[in-house]
Amino acid sequence: MGGYNAWVRKHLVTWMEKNGLPSEAIAAFSARWSKLEHLDKFLCPHCFVHDGAERPVGSLMAQDNIEPLVCPHCRTQYDIPMG
Ligand SMILES: [Zn+2]
Q: How far does residue 11's CA lie from ligand 1's centre (Å)?
């Protein structure tokens, strides 16, 4: 589970970089992530940065080796490639 967790975080951080979020925000997200107790609950980067809220994303059915994670609050979708 730890490997998958690190994999998801890596791709969420890439999403944040591509969307031009400040490096301080990305660092704060990563720091918070490393303290998560439940590794199967992934935080929405958009809500974390823009609302200061910790909202878990849900996962949709995987398709074409992509596992989409979607935030039920802001509807942002994060496509996580399946290893
Ligand atoms: Zn969100």
A: 15
